[in-house]
Amino acid sequence: MLDTASVPVQNPADTSSTRLPRTGASSTAAIRALGTNPATAPIVLHPGDALPTSRRVLYVILLGALTALGPFTIDLYLPAFPVLESDFQTTAAAIQLTLTGTMIGFGLGQLVVGPLSDKVGRRIPLLAVTALHVVASIAAAIAPTLLLLGVARVFMGIGAAAGGVVAMAIVRDLFGGKRLVVMLSRLALVVGVAPVVAPLIGAALLEVMPWRGLFVVLACYGAVMFLAAIVFIPETLPPARRHDQGSMTMRQRYRSVLSDRVFLGVLVIGGMSFSGLFSYLSASPFLFQQTHGLDAQQYGMLFAVNSLGVVLGVQTASRLAARFGPQWVLAFSTAVLVLAGSAIIVTDQLGLGLWGTVVPLFVFMTAVGFTMPCVQVLALDRHPKAAGTAASLLGAVNFGVAGMVSPIVGGLSEGAITATTMAVVMVGCGALAVAALWIIVRPRSVERLTP
Questions:
Q1: Which alpha helices (H) appear in 287-418, and where do they start and end?
Q2: How far apart are CA 439 and CA 161, in angstroms?
Q3: Are 182 and 174 in contact (CB under 8 A)?
Q4: Poorest-pLDDT segment among 24-28, 223-227, 249-253
Q5: 204 — phi, psi (to 5°)?
Q6: What confidence tens digit (pLDDT) does each residue in 234-263 have?
Q7: What H or E segment, with its residue span, contains residue 40?
Q8: Alpha-carbon distance 127 to 428, whole Å?
Q9: What pTM value is reported for the model?
Q10: Dihedrals phi, psi of 32, to nearest 5 degrees
Q11: How far apart (Å, rounded) are the C-alpha atoms in residues 178 and 184?
Q12: C-alpha dihedral sign at 324, 329, 330, 335
């Protein structure tokens, strides 16, 4: 386990001493791989560079599972929307509000957890908020009314907030430059795939349990993550780094990231791409199960196919971003968001049916996959001392804005939700992302990533 508390920082240009403070083998290795000539040995600039491959794989698995807790909390019960509408004798728009409440809670939770993790370390906020998720999930499972279910869902969102924001902050604690691109691309893969895989798993679970059982499953998931965090995840932001000479107050951290033009631009891009994604996710149970007549299993398979598009996008983007720069990958992906969404409107108006919607929808999901890791890299690489704050703002905007935008699909629909009303919102989100990239971020002004 890497002890980042004792990792010294040495100027690569300073070769006056051939010996480093002896603070443990892993700490020494994190700075200089000593050989026969220590003065010319390679410098390792980030603590995570000293980790063996097996340890990095373990971190990817555990941090990925923590990151997935949020999307699973939000999306696992999507296939149960029609059942909830029937059980509570309410409208589709009212059921969608429980999804909105979850995402708003998720966003607000990150605004608290991120800066708190910069101040007190990563582990305490992670454990406390994950425990809240377990309690709230049990409350949702036994909620007798839609109102109480909605309240429980808000607290579930707050409880799931720690996973994603702390996972990104831990990665930024350990890595930088192009290796940061690779590690964040793994988390972005989870963020992109989990929302589309979760309904597939939810549909399968509905075959063997009532909808309340889904929340019991989420409670168990949260409990497993709580125990895994205790056993396997170390503190990557020790006291020495929280209170060093370059540390900042919460207000200074927020000011630092919010005064960064590029960060503000990618904040808009991330929020709009997520809003387009969740407009699809919130509308899809009604569009595909009621309008197109798919059963829960067919609906789940549709999500599985779309998840392949997200995987393709994320993995391709991570390679292209390291080579050409994430800002130029965003120039491509945001344009495709608009084109694919527009294609859905055209095919629906031409009456091309289910396939006319599914094919351009797959392209849209692939473009979302391209967008996610690039947004994360541009947001976090620029703010190493405020990684938790930057990650929390990114997550809060992504899910908070998506929670407010996605119900617009239901509001635009007169009666049944159609592919056109869904795609109109998706196109609007994509257009705003394009505008933010070229007007606020301005790709030519963004410096290249460090090695």
A1: 296-324, 326-349, 353-380, 387-405, 408-412
A2: 30
A3: no
A4: 24-28
A5: -65, -40
A6: 888 877 666 554 556 677 778 888 888 999
A7: none
A8: 38
A9: 0.66
A10: -145, 125
A11: 10
A12: positive
